[in-house]
C-alpha cells in the first residue's frame, strides 16, 4: 500500500510558502517607494449619494397637524412642500426660507464605476457564453458531419477564428460588420466574444464526441434510433461529462478576454478600472481591486463546474 504524505506537514509548508509570498509582495512595494491609498477605492465601488431637497419658492417652515415640517409659500398658502423621508433636515419650524435654500438631504447607496463595470462584465460574459455554446455545439457537430459542405464550412470557421487575434476580430465585428448591420457596442462585443469562443468550444465538443466509443452509435442505430436521436440521447450526454473541465477553462478565458471589449468604448470592468485610475492616481490599488474581482468571477465559475463534475460522476 502506497504511503500517504503527512497532511499536517505539507499544509504547514503551504502556509509558509504563502507567508513568504506575502512578505515578498510587501518588500517589493516598499522598494518602489509607493504610497498606498486604499481609502480612495471603496467610493468607486459603492458610495453614498446625496439627494438634496431645495426650496422652489420663498416661504416659511411650519408644522402641520401630523407634526411634519411643511414649507408654505409666502405668496400662495395653497402651495406647500412637505419635508419628509429625509435623513438630515436642515430647517426648523418658523424658519424663513428663500428659493434655492437647502431644506433636507437623504442618502442612498449607489454603485460606483467599478461596480457598474463589474455588472457589465458579468452581463457580457453570460450572454456571450450562451451564444458561444450554441455556436460551438452546432460547429462541433458539423465538424464531424458526413456532409462535406457542413464539415468544410465548420473547418473554415474554426481555423479562421483560431488563427486570428481576438482584438482584431473585435475591431472587424464592430467597425465593419457593426456598421453594416447597425450593431451597438454591447451587441458587437457579444458577437465577437461568442464567435471567438465558439470556435474553441467546437473543437472541445468534437474531441468529446470522438472520445465516446464508436460502438455507442452503432448500438443506438441497431435499436432503431436515427443518427440524430442517437447523438442527442446517447453520445452527447457521455461526451458532456468528458468536456466539462476544458469547457470550464474556455469559459474562464472568455471572462478574462471580455476585458478587450474596452477598445470599443464598452465600459466593462477593465475600462472602469482605467477611468478610476485617471481619477484617483492610484494605479496599483485599482488594478489589484480589478484583478480580485476577475478572480472572484472565475472562482465562482470554477466552483460551479466542479459541483457539476461531482454531480455527473455520482450518476455514472
Automatic annotation (TrEMBL):
Record localization: Cell inner membrane; Cell membrane
Transmembrane segments: 6-26, 124-144, 164-183, 190-209, 286-305
Gene3D superfamilies in the cross-refs: MetI-like
UniProt membrane topology term: Multi-pass membrane protein
GO terms, biological process: amino acid transport
Domain ABC transmembrane type-1: 118-305
GO cellular component: ATP-binding cassette (ABC) transporter complex
Source species, domain of life: Bacteria
GO molecular function: transmembrane transporter activity
InterPro entries xref list: AA_ABC_transptr_permease_3TM, ArtM/GltK/GlnP/TcyL/YhdX-like, MetI-like, MetI-like_sf
Pfam families reported for this sequence: BPD_transp_1
Reported function: Part of the binding-protein-dependent transport system for glutamine; probably responsible for the translocation of the substrate across the membrane.
Family statement drawn from the similarity comment of this UniProt entry: Belongs to the binding-protein-dependent transport system permease family. HisMQ subfamily.
Stated name of the protein: Putative glutamine transport system permease protein GlnP
Organism: Endozoicomonas numazuensis
Amino acid at each position: 500500500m502506497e504511503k500517504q504524505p503527512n497532511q499536517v506537514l505539507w499544509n504547514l509548508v503551504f502556509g509558509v510558502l504563502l507567508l513568504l509570498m506575502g512578505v515578498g509582495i510587501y518588500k517589493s512595494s516598499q522598494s518602489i517607494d509607493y504610497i498606498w491609498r486604499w481609502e480612495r477605492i471603496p467610493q468607486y465601488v459603492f458610495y453614498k449619494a446625496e439627494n438634496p431637497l431645495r426650496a422652489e419658492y420663498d416661504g416659511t417652515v411650519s408644522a402641520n397637524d401630523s407634526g411634519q415640517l411643511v414649507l408654505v409659500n409666502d405668496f400662495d398658502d395653497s402651495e406647500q412642500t412637505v419635508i419628509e423621508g429625509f435623513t438630515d433636515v436642515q430647517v426648523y419650524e418658523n424658519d424663513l426660507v428663500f428659493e434655492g435654500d437647502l431644506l433636507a438631504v437623504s442618502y442612498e447607496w449607489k454603485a460606483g464605476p467599478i461596480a457598474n463595470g463589474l455588472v457589465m462584465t458579468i452581463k457580457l460574459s453570460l450572454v456571450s457564453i450562451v451564444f458561444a455554446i450554441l455556436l460551438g455545439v452546432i460547429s462541433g457537430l458539423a465538424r464531424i458531419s458526413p456532409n462535406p459542405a457542413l464539415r468544410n464550412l465548420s473547418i473554415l470557421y474554426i481555423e479562421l477564428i483560431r488563427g486570428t487575434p481576438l482584438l482584431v476580430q473585435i475591431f472587424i465585428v464592430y467597425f465593419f460588420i457593426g456598421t453594416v448591420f447597425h450593431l451597438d457596442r454591447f451587441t458587437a462585443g457579444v458577437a465577437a466574444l461568442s464567435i471567438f469562443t465558439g470556435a474553441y468550444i467546437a473543437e472541445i465538443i468534437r474531441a468529446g464526441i470522438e472520445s465516446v466509443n464508436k460502438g455507442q452509435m452503432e448500438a443506438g442505430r441497431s435499436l432503431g434510433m436515427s443518427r440524430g436521436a442517437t447523438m442527442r440521447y446517447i453520445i452527447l450526454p457521455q461526451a458532456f461529462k468528458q468536456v466539462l473541465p476544458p469547457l470550464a477553462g474556455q469559459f474562464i478565458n472568455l471572462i478574462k478576454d471580455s476585458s478587450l471589449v474596452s477598445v470599443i468604448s464598452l465600459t466593462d470592468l477593465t475600462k472602469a478600472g482605467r477611468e478610476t485610475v485617471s481619477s484617483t492616481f492610484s494605479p496599483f490599488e485599482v488594478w489589484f481591486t480589478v484583478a480580485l474581482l476577475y478572480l472572484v468571477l472565475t472562482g465562482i465559475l470554477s466552483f460551479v463546474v466542479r459541483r457539476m463534475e461531482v454531480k455527473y460522476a455520482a450518476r455514472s
